[in-house]
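During the practical work, I selected for study one protein's amino acid sequence and its backbone structure tokens, as given directly below:
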Amino acid sequence: MLGKREVSIYGGQSLDDINREIAREAERLGIEVEFHQSNYEGELVTRIQEGWGRLEGIVLNAAAYTHYSIAIRDAIAAAQVPTVEVHISNIYKREPFRHISCIAAVCVGQICGLGPLGYRLALRALAGRAVPAQPPPGFAGPRGRKYLVFPGSGPGTDSGPDAPGREDPIHESLRDRARELGVGVEYVRSDRESAIVDTLRAASGSFEGIIIDGGVPVHGGDAVRSAIGAIPLPCIEVHAPNVHARDEAHPTSLIAPACVGVIGGFGGMSYTLALEALVGLTATERGSA
């Protein structure tokens, strides 16, 4: 029903359109892909189980089954094939029952809210590397474009665009990818919610988009969420680990509903995938302006 059903949420592309884009991405990555769509839960379970020992990875949009299918969850866990959960829409912006994913804990990661691009990002994550360095279609410089990054806890830059010798591998990899794409990234690290809010409020006009790690202090109040919602910049929440797979209860993210999407579970690649998504989103917006 893609392209016909709730176009304002799921977009105007058909399933065939999306599959063609995925196939082109797979060709660029040098991997093979198979496509399967079914409205039947049992058929999806069987297809996942058949991946045992045969597939290197699965990209799965379980649609409504995401929120209640223990059978699909058990199939993913039993098949032992790395699986990425993908949603075209940002499920955290929608009805409360859609905020719960039964399958997230047994997937390697989750990508939501980034439209059909989410499938291609998931493919890149499973392939273990980004696509060959090149700007996305429609990208038209100049090279002065910058993206603001709020990293999570751990080693890395304290603030500002340059801190030689102080970056951890995640941030170094993100800077390398930014150079390949012809854009800049600037890190701002702070443990104070008020400082994060002030930086967000001043971001318009200086940055094209924002990447914010869910590990920064965003769970205790809604000030950061309000600040994100008040600025005309796309923001993606990232997590290096799969927070849904933790033994302890995962605290609800207050900023996810204000972000365009969420990417988590892919280590440092969560950051680079978010940057690629933002560059693609902002290039599209500029091209249609």
